[in-house]
Each structure stands twice: as structure tokens, then as C-alpha cells.
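User: Structure please.
Assistant: Input sequence and predicted structure:
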Amino acid sequence: MVKHQPLQVYEKQVFLSFVTGIYGCRWKRYQRSHDDSSKWECTWFILLCSSFFLLLFWVYFWLVAHNDYNEFNWSLYNRSGEWRDDTVPILASSAVGFSYITFLMILALFHISLGQQLNLYWIHKSTAPFLHIGALAVITALSWLVAGYVVRRERSSFQVMVLVIYISIVLAVYLVPLTFTCPCIMDRNDLKPRPDIIGRRGAPMLAPENTLVSFNRALQQGASALEADVTISVDGVPFLMRDRTLRRTTDVSKVFPARQYEDASYFNWTELRSLNAGQWFLKRDPYWTAESLTPKDQTRIGNQTVCSLMEMLRLAARANCSALLNIRRPPPEHPRHRSWFMDTLWAVQRAGISQKRVTWTPDTDRGRVRGLPQSTSEKLSLEEMRQRGITSLTLHYSKASQKDIQEYLANNVSVTVYPVNEPWLYSTLWCSGVPSVSSDAPQDLRKVPYPIWLMSRNAYWFIWIASDLVSFAIVLGIFSFQKWRMSGIQNYNPEQIMLSAVVRRPSRDVNIMKEKLIFSEMNGVGSTEDLSLYPENGYAIYSHGGLSH
């Protein structure tokens, strides 16, 4: 009995070599396989997909959290004692990881569409599970690969699983707008007035925080109020300082090196006034804005000293704006622990500013406050706020829901949201009806004369439904085309497929193959199994013995 060999024509497959080489380090033809992937390789593919979606969520989270980069850096400073922008390495590593894992995902999907066995190289296996991944994007574009895989003649449980997962993701994407609640989907006539902007520590991106030049910059950028962090010195002078120590924003390590880790409240006013509070801003350039300053501005900033509360309040009084004070009570062993309230009130009275324009935020000694508007950063019930005499609320934007905002405003409780540094967040809070926001970047918010986007509910529903219908039509068309394409390929016989594959590359071996096919039809040879061609070694053999080279 004669052993028949299938007709084999080896062509250069650059794209396939690239896909299998990068993904599984299988650069040679003999290393590839059309066999079903093993359970372990399928497991690695699932881990790869999971990492992809997790990393997509991680990248999206950091993009949305751009508003909180300053708070993040400050919290790290409180723990490490060193001021630096730690968001840069996080964003850089996330971008590299996302690009890498996305590339692997594309290669894996090409493996599936080309019918190649999944065989992830061990180097990728060691890193892929630890990379957070993601992408719930391009669902419509992915339908081409999914359809090319599931419409094949061969049926397997893995194909069914891929199709079910894809359909589930598509349906989730189509229906997820039902869960959305956006304050900017509203009628234009219902839009509230533009929220007032409070300069949080002045304009700390343009000048060193809690200094006179910073508060002046905030007023120049359209701030209607100023917010400051107040600490009481050992001799009873309220001054402006955010941190517990003076290391970050002054040159205390040069002037008083032995006391650089000491609490700022244990310095007297003469010592504080001798410190420079501006050079750190020019040297470290925490917001990459120092280079844009003019030489005159740099000189002015470089000569800044620690600012007292009275100086800031006098500036606010001249500008006819309000002030929001975040006061840090001195430690129990501090000489001014009991008299800090009177020290602060005395500074307010000497500044010549109306007490109605000064908002008091500490939760202690509220019963002693007379004539000063009181605020709290704690989310309290309306009844409790009435009992404490609180008339305004200062909330972190992550805790300020639209429902709560509307409830507080309906009961004459003013709401200020902080920190608001991004135009999109400012626009969202504007649509929510927030009367004021506290910002580190008043220079950016002043450029938002109107919400970035505002859409009526009918327009939103129309765009959502129309987009879903267009996507569904494209996906359905792609699946139909792939099915028609695969059915056409399946109707070809092997001789037609091989001849069409090599017709563009004429050679001596190809001519021999064509002659054999014609000769086989004349002699009744019914299949290419009776023929064998070995172009790689220069020999062509006819298995029935009729021809040999």
C-alpha cells in the first residue's frame, strides 16, 4: 500500500512569523501548531485579559485623579519628609505597562484569528499577571477578530465561550448608560450661577503657598475669597503654615538646623520672620511654573517670608473679599494651648476686616465664637448643624453627591467643595448648583466661562440610542461578512486553494506542480494526496511512480 503525502507549498509568512515569534518565541515554521491550546495556555490568556482590563481601570483612575495630584504629593511628604512629584513615576510605569500588555493582547487575538496555538513565552508569563490591564474600548472593532474565530466550520466549547463573553461585554457597554447620573444632563435654563472660586492657600501653582504674593496672584486670577492654614506661634502670633514642620516651605534647615523637625508652633514670631518662604518654590519648581516667571517675579518670590494671619486678612479687606480659616490648635503642652482662640480673634479684629467675611472652621470652642460664620468639613445632619450653629459646609469633592448638595442648599446651608483644580470637575459642580469651590488653580478655572459640556436629556438619549444602533449594525455586518467569507473559502477544493496561493510566485517547482495536477486529472487521480512536492530540497516525487526528479 502506497503512503500518500499531502501537497505542501512552503511560502514566507512574515506576519505569522512576527506574531508567533514575539508572543511565544516560535520563529520557525516547524515550531508552530494549529492544535488546540492547552488548558494552561488558555489560563494564561485569561490572566492576560484580566490584567488588561485591570490596567485599563488603573490608567483611567489616575487620569481622573489628576485633580488630586497635589494632595497625593503632600500626603507622601507627611510620611517621608521629602517633597517630590511622585505621580510622574506612577504615570510613566502605568503607561509602559499598559502599552506592553495591550501589545500582548493584540498578539493573542491575532493568534486566535489565525488559528494558531496559544503559547505565551515564559518571559511574558512572569510579568503579565502582575500588570494591571484593561480596555473596554473598541468593542465594535474587536468584532472582526471574534467573528473570524467563531464562524469557522469546526465548533468547540472555547469558541462558544468567546462568543458568549463578547456578547455579554457588548450588551454591558450598550446598557451601561442606564446607570449613569450626570448633573450636566439638564436644561440650560436650569443652570445655576457660576460658582465662586476660593484661592486655596492663594495660588500655590503660581507662587509659594500661604505667602502674600500667592494671595495677590489668586486675587488677580479672579478669586472671590482666600483660604489659609493658620498656626499659633509660641508667643501668640497666628501665622500661615500648612505643614506641622517648617522643612518643606522654608529654609529652616539652614537657619535652625537643629530645630528643623520641631513643630512650627514652637517658634516665636521673630524666628519665623527670619526664615525665607520663597526660595524653595524656585528651586524645586513643584508645579513646573517657575520658568514662566519673569525676573521681577522671581526676585519678589525669592524674598518672601512667613506670612502672618493679620497680613493676609488686611489684604482680603482691601480687596473686599472673604476669608476661610483652617486653624490648627496648638499641642496640649504648648503655652498658647488655651488662649489660641483669643489670639486668633484678636488678629481678626486688628486686621480691620468685617467679621461676617471671616469663616471659622475649627470644631472646638464654637460656643465662644460670636459674629463669625462657622463652617465644618465634617458631613453632618441638618439637625446637628443647626444645634452647633454651623451655616456652611466644606466638603471634599469625593464626598459631595448631587443629592446631598441639593438637600443642603434647600435648607440654606452653603456648600464649598475642595479641592477643585480641573475644569471638568468645576463644570460638573457648576451643574450641580455648588455656590463656591476651593481651588489650587484659580488661573485654570477662570478660563471656564461656561460648563465644558451641557446636554439636554432628550439629546443624550438620542445620541446613546443612535450610537448603540450604529455599533450593532456594524457588528452584525461584520459577523455576516465573515460568515460569507468563510463559507466561500470552504467551497474551494485543495487544488484551487494551492494554485491560487502560488500563482503570484512562478518558479520551476511551481510549474512542476501544475504539470502534475494536470497529469493527475488526465489519469483520474482524485486528490492531492497522491502528489508530493518538496521545494526545499529540489526533489519532486509522484507517489504512483510515474515521475521522479
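The longest strand covers residues 225-232.
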